[in-house]
Amino acid sequence: MIIEPGYLGYLKYEGDTVEEGIMDARDAASALLGFDEAFRYCVEQEKPTWNREDLNLPVRIEKGCWQILIPAGLAVFAGQYLKSTAKIAAEDGLFETSAAKDLNRILKASLSALVWLVKISKHLGAVGDKSRASNAKIRDSDHVVVLNDQNEEIVVTKRQFDLYCQCPKALLGQCARIIDENCELEIGRFENGAVIDSMRIFPEERTVFYSEKEDSEIILPELEHGKFVSLEGEITRATESTNTIGFHYQGHTLFCRPERGQKIASFKQRIISRQDDHIFPRVHLVGVVNRSDKHGGFRAKKPEIVFSEILSIEMISGELL
Question: Which CATH architecture is the domain 228-320 placed in?
Answer without folding.
Answer: Beta Barrel (2.40)
